[in-house]
Amino acid sequence: MQVDTAIIGAGAAGMMCAAHAGGKVLLIDHAKAPGEKIRISGGGRCNFTNMYCDPGSFLSGNPHFVKSALARYTQWDFVELVDQHGIKWHEKTLGQLFCDVSAKEIIAMLRALMQKAGVDLRLQSHATDIRKTDSGFALTLHGPDGDTSVTANNLVIATGGKSIPKMGATGFAYDVAAAFGLPVAETRAGLVPFTFTDARFAPISGTAVPARVSAGGTSFDEALLFTHRGLSGPAVLQASSYWQDGAPITVNLDPKTALFDALRDQRQNYGRRNFTTELSAHLPSRLVEHLGALHDLTGNLADWSDARLMALCDALQNWQMVPSGTEGYRTAEVTLGGVDTDALSSKSMMAKTVPGLYFIGEAVDVTGWLGGYNFQWAWSSAMAAARAL
Ligand code: FDA
Fold first, then answer.
1. Fewest beta carbons less than 10 Å away: which of 66, 260, 271, 389?
2. Ramachandran region, residue 96 (left: φ > 0; alpha: ψ -120 to 50; beta: rest)
3. Which cofactor names does the annotation list (predicted)?
4. Dihedral angle, C-alpha 202, 208, 209, 210, nearest 10 °
């Protein structure tokens, strides 16, 4: 079989690229259905982009790399596409745009676009023996109907990262990159809960609090969730992408309040009340109860000196802890690292040293924040490649 473009990986990036590449396109995926991560994303409603998408919300070895692709296919371009297909959406919070009805609508839209473009989608299929030829690439396609030799002018790798191996995630893109002599930035799990081997938060698991979580010099103000195994919630997932093994994280349990001043004011009016009762005006009572095991919270508020109040407020608003690790690729939403951006053109995603070979989506060393940024990278990088094919 001879095609203009062979794309491996029918996820968000692969389908978007296939739909817009033009020419004869073969799209290969080993899964039973395309876009499985789209289907489960955003609690089944797919947070498909973010209104505030900009390069500052992405991690990469080269923070400038994302600029061109994001500028040439923006969040508003994707919103326009979604609107054209009659998909209703809403902003949930912080610019995060979700489908009103179902993530399946995004998959259906991409499938419709691919069908219109005549894309040959091969599911439950994989490729081996990938090699460069004089005119492009050759590979062997293994599918339900047997093996087929394929030649293609261009080869696009869109197989994503290692997150959630149960859903078919593989390190395939990194292997292809390495086979063609391209560098791969070390990979690790991102947007992932922290674990503590002593299960210290098990007694308050399920308790959530609006918090500021900081790691590696970057802070996020969102919800923090205590779990049986450690910490989760959006603020924690975000911070995890900036965390290095063995480093401390800092938690501010009440970032919106000048807690010391507030408790001092309360002391004037309600000094005869229990300290824990007054602290519960700021934090969930289950959490206050738990904090009582870590700090001396006894006495009436009037008994608390400024110095004692100050020390406790510092402990609650500047709480340092060292996670034992993360939940890893098993539950991580994304993979940090990937095909080194130095090896790719930021305009087209083509490998600088291998004409015709492209890497798009999560396979590349570009990782977005939580909130629709990763899908926007998939759409933008896919369009960058599609326009160059
Ligand atoms: P993606 O992983 O989507 O696709 C890769 C495809 O390649 C898959 O279809 C896979 O089967 C196939 N493949 C892999 N190896 C192969 C091989 N060797 N041979 C053939 N095929 C192979 N992001 C966001 O912006 N908003 C959100 O709401 C969410 N929610 C979310 C929830 C959960 C639970 C997860 C795990 C992730 C998210 N994300 C997200 C992240 C988002 O899903 C992710 O960044 C994109 O799906 C990446 O798109 P890609 O197309 O690059 O990879």
1. 271
2. beta
3. FAD
4. 130
Residues 137-186 pLDDT 10s: 999 999 999 999 999 999 999 999 999 999 989 999 999 999 999 999 99
> Using CB atoms within 10 A of its CB, is residue 294 exposed (0-12), middle (13-18) or buried (19+)?
exposed
CA-to-CA dists, residue 239 to 242, 298, 326, angstroms:
5, 33, 11
Interface confidence, given as ipTM, is 0.99
**225, two tokens:** 């969730």
The structure tokens listed for 383 are: 């369009």
Q: What is the pLDDT of residues 3-27, one digit of tens each?
A: 999 999 999 999 999 999 999 999 9
Report which protein residue has its CA nearest ligand 1's atom 25.
372
Distance CA 60, CA 343 (A): 13
Q: Which protein residues are within 6 Å of ligand 1, measured from CB?
A: 8-14, 28-31, 36-37, 40-42, 46-47, 126, 158-160, 163-164, 168-170, 172, 333-334, 361-363, 372-375, 378
Look at residues 187, 209, 189, 120 and name the one whose alpha carbon lies nearest to residue 338: 187
Q: Which of 231, 11, 266, 203 is nearest to 121 (CA)?
A: 11
Residue reference for tokens 């933008």: 380
Cα distance between residue 327 and residue 323, in whole Å? 11
In the chain, which residues have pLDDT < 70? none
pTM flag (> 0.90): yes
